[in-house]
Amino acid sequence: MHENFVIHPNYSHLAAKLTDVLHNFSKKGEYVTKGERNVIKKVQIEETFFNIKKFKTPNAFQSLVYQFLRKSKAKRSFEYASKLIDFGIKTPFPVAYLEVFSGGLKESFYVSEHVNYDFDFRELIHNPKFENRNEILRQFTQFTFKLHENGVNFLDHSPGNTLIVDRGNDTYEFYLIDLNRMRFEPMDFNARMHNFRRLWLSKTMMKVMAQEYAELYNKSVDGTYALMLHYSREFQKKVNSKKLRRRR
Fold first, then answer.
1. pLDDT at 69 over 90
2. Which CATH architecture has domain 2-113?
3. Average pLDDT for residues 124-147, to the nearest whole number?
4. Among 31-45, 81-95, 178-192, where is mean pLDDT lowest?
5. Of 4, 5, 121, 185, which sits with the fewest C-beta atoms within 10 Å of its C-beta?
6. What are phi and psi of 82, to 5 degrees?
7. For the domain 119-247, what is the CATH code?
8. Burial letters for 12-38: b for 16+ Cβ neighbours within 10 Å, e otherwise?
């Protein structure tokens, strides 16, 4: 068995305490989410709160792929977060990751700074009367435009993966989470509109966002809205038909 532990220089003074927490993950901290695939816990070390994500143990074949052919989700999360920060795009600060190998990848953890956020993008979908909703949607569109301009194709650009902090005075900050599925590539107009598809936007939301994006990208509002709607409806239909098939 061997381990690969990488920590950001800003936090190297906490390396021993952090590895102790990771080795005793089941006994430390409090649960944030306890999913079938991944578990997230919040822990405090000295004055700072961290989130630790433990990824699901891969099957025997995948564990060998992750050891020899492909970066683990923990390593990708750490590297992608560092890249986003270099672009000036907010994400919980990448602190460390740990990979444990024994005949393949057995366990992997990603550690980031805990962000005290006010709400996530989901709330804008579920509550059409959410205070200042249109302004938040416009600023979220600017945030997504910044991703696209920097060649960031966030494949999991979905409602639960953007945390929002209300800074007051109609100013909002957006933090991307769940980063391990991302491509860095130039994005044409088609790819950009396709990237909105997982957000489950209503037509009302789309009208606000299409108008903002069209202005930023110098495209017609109608053309932007039509393409955004096309990809969103296509995705929603696909998901709904899968749900129907499962029920039968």
1. no
2. 2-Layer Sandwich (3.30)
3. 97
4. 31-45
5. 185
6. -65, -40
7. 1.10.510.10
8. eebeeebeebbeebeeebeeeeeeeee
pTM value? 0.93
User: How many Å apart are CA 213 and CA 50, to the nearest integer?
Assistant: 34
pLDDT band at 144 (very low <50, low <70, confident <90, very high): very high
Q: Which residues have a Cβ under 8 Å from the Cβ of 179 and sit 6 or more positions away?
A: 76, 77, 80, 81, 84, 91, 154
Structure token pair of residue 161: 């993966």
| pLDDT tops 70 at residue 48 | yes
Which tokens is 21 given?
A: 């927490």
- Contact between 162 and 121 (Cβ < 8 Å): yes
**CA 67 to each of CA 8, 26, 71: distance values in angstroms, whole numbers, following the listed order:** 22, 24, 7
Per-residue tokens: 136: 């938040």
Query: 67: closest CA among 35, 24, 100?
Result: 100
Map out the domains of the chain as residue ranges.
2-113, 119-247
Under a CB-based contact definition with an 8 Å cutoff, are residues 105 and 99 in contact? yes
Tell me what the mean pLDDT of segment 89-114 comes to: 96
**Tokens 């957000």 found at:** 199
Mean local confidence (pLDDT), 50-66: 89
Please, which pLDDT band fits residue 247 given cuts at 50, 70 and 90?
low
